[in-house]
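thought: fold this chain, then report.
action: predict
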Amino acid sequence: MIKDKFKEIRKFCETHSDPDTVKKYSRYFKEGYDGYGIKKEDFESVRDQWIDDWSDEMTLDDYLDLGDLLMQKGKLEEKSFAISFIKSERENYTESTFDRIGIWFEMGISDWATTDVLCMLVLSSFIIDEVISFEKLKSWTLSDDEWQRRAVPVTLNELVKGGLDPTIAFPLLDPIMLDQSEYVQKGIGTLLRGLWKKHPKIVEGYLLKWKDQCGRLIVRYATEKMNKEDRKRFRKKK
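observation:
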């Protein structure tokens, strides 16, 4: 059954591939765009149809098995389908589900877009629904995979609108504040910028502590909404 679903998804992707859309999105992927270029409306329509049609036959475990195939062998849209399928099973998440999804980074998550969609649609729910602890997410900061490390600040960023306390976020960021990956740095900076809007003094204090050591992309992204004079305070000492 799983292999048949994979073949159906692959056939849809190949028949709806659009070179113009591939060209359009390629400029956003410095590491290379590995996608079919499926139009958004076509993707969303068939995604919703599959989830509805398969609701009586596919379980969370089935979708995880299908997700393994899609992550290992698929392009960007196929990986996005895998994430959407898992999102539809939110009520059944367990801590072992989180661990299983973590293996996807080894299998085939290799770009910022797949990472961020996974964080937005799936990983943030594990924290919101208290399926896992913040400490569990923190363990990913030790990963050798830059995308898995990026997933920590990007997942936290999804919690900002729900009132994330910066003092909860900071201990999760400490292990990766010296990270050399530009994508991890951008993720941290974006999170700090979002927290700064609600907690400026606390975030500024944290950033001042790290500004002479951390990557400059963190500082650039974190201070983006500050005025010019305020940004000067965060220049690295020579």
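thought: worth noting. The mean pLDDT is 95.
final: tokens above.
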